[in-house]
Amino acid sequence: MAVPPTSHRIDPATGVLSSPTGRYEKRLAELAGIYADADAFAAALAERGDSIVYAVHEVRPAAARGDLIFGTTFMEPGRIGDEFYVTRGHIHARANRPETYYGEAGEGLMLMESPEGETSILEVRPRVMVYVPPLWIHRSVNTGSAPLVMSFCYPADAGQDYGLIARSGGMATRILADGTGWKAVPNADYRPRSAAEIDAILATQD
Amino acid sequence: MAVPPTSHRIDPATGVLSSPTGRYEKRLAELAGIYADADAFAAALAERGDSIVYAVHEVRPAAARGDLIFGTTFMEPGRIGDEFYVTRGHIHARANRPETYYGEAGEGLMLMESPEGETSILEVRPRVMVYVPPLWIHRSVNTGSAPLVMSFCYPADAGQDYGLIARSGGMATRILADGTGWKAVPNADYRPRSAAEIDAILATQD
């Protein structure tokens, strides 16, 4: 028997997706070590450590191989010092799996990094589809003053790897407030990957 | 080297997707044999045979396996007799590949059929995500009086098979105008698939 079709309404104001198979949220206290300014993070933690930074609604199919996972990401606006709220970020565990992100509400960025350490930054706006190709690390950034809501779609066998970013001391680029806009600055804690690690990622097959 | 990220703006009024890698359109004259009312089709053909029924913008990546194809479908409103305009419809050539369709503008239906011949009909509206699971034949129907625009996403190795529908004399269900709404009626030309053909589709692996 084939799995039955389903439909899901997306609320662009809240990111709520009807009939999800799962939902999770990340609170500020769970994002220790992500931001540059340790003092500002400690202060924010004391003030609003249990506040939500982002929440995900998703629909995961029963079977993995060849299927799709889709859902929404809702990100609160906010900063740690000058640094905008970001998601933890990941590369797919099967590194050659891509992802699409589609702007539903708000203003933000998709911050992406190739295995070699090249940064790519694309603006997310309503009705803008961002394609994160295979092999790119990616993280969302809310650069606006309102929630950033996106819908996403990726192969069901992709998985998430958070270790690659952690081993490099974060992503090569940070996004800071700059007047009413944003600017990209180098991450002082960043340690480029070794040639062997880069080659291993680029060699991902199947 | 990793393929660079890209972003694409969707115009919900026209279905135009910026920076597509491909675009195609289907004109009425290319859809012979799809509709029930042969006389009405002949009359429509004489009157507007070269008019567009639907147009697709798409982004196809270089590599297939594990990647995604995404884009938009724009459908004109219209009818052949009482039958609403539909897309040709397909099952994926790798039949166990799914697809998501997301309403951007207009009102329509996703008309779906399992290998066994079960019909599923889900309404497409702005902000509604329809999940077409693996193994389901699917066709879009514009039941409104304005263009129906959707964005879609599916695995890059899915492919399209149009023969399965043709061999069955179409899909089991047709969508007709009913006052200001729609109704589903049996397709008199439909020939159910054999048990062997059903089994072969359900056995799709990898």
From TrEMBL, chains A, B:
Its EC number is 5.3.1.9. This is glucose-6-phosphate isomerase. SUPFAM superfamilies: RmlC-like cupins. Keywords: Gluconeogenesis, Glycolysis, Isomerase. CDD domains: cupin_PGI. Pfam families: GPI (PF06560). Residues 26-182 form the Glucose-6-phosphate isomerase prokaryote domain. The keyword Metal-binding does not apply. InterPro entries: G6P_isomerase_prok, RmlC-like_jellyroll, RmlC_Cupin_sf. It catalyses: alpha-D-glucose 6-phosphate = beta-D-fructose 6-phosphate. Belongs to the archaeal-type GPI family. Pathway: Carbohydrate degradation; glycolysis; D-glyceraldehyde 3-phosphate and glycerone phosphate from D-glucose: step 2/4. One of its GO terms (molecular function) is glucose-6-phosphate isomerase activity. The keyword Isomerase applies.
